[in-house]
Amino acid sequence: DVKVTQSSRYLVKRTGEKVFLECVQDMDHENMFWYRQDPGLGLRLIYFSYDVKMKEKGDIPEGYSVSREKKERFSLILESASTNQTSMYLCASSPHGSGGANEQFFGPGTRLTVL
Amino acid sequence: AQSVTQLGSHVSVSEGALVLLRCNYSSSVPPYLFWYVQYPNQGLQLLLKYTSAATLVKGINGFEAEFKKSETSFHLTKPSAHMSDAAEYFCASPLYSSASKIIFGSGTRLSIRP
Asked: Is the pLDDT score of A98 beyond 70?
């Protein structure tokens, strides 16, 4: 059974803290993604990684950075958390190739609250 | 710009009634289209996928979707709603500029009345 796991389901942090969200997949997928989900806005891509140490900005990268040192792990970093980063964060992975036919597999999400 | 539009942020139907969730894509015909479902407090999972092999696509849990090029639509239906269908549904399409990425609609929350 394919699996994407996220380090925390719920997280509460204070403004200005550095926050790490971890994601691990066991499917040997090349692509990994971090999304932010807010009511009425759907999923918005923060960052995308297509290989180890490779990353690409998504639609809303400001205030975030990422790290991919190993193929199975993709970390999202909030350098200095702010209240407008309170949201649901979803990690996903997919294999390379097939011209867009590949579905993305999602983790359960991390609900982050910044006070 | 490429877009996927879902009409209706919230749909409410009675148990046993027809479910119809609407999705329209940008005018360029995409090679693939997806419907994902998100149950409460969970991540997204694939419901069904259009791959141009057939215009009517069957998915899990009795859902199906029909690709209509003339209407640029890919609406999701289920003949008889069940309480367990209450969830948020997302229509999605690969990005033309980068096929590994997916563009999602804004989502439709489906509620089921007893």
From this structure: no
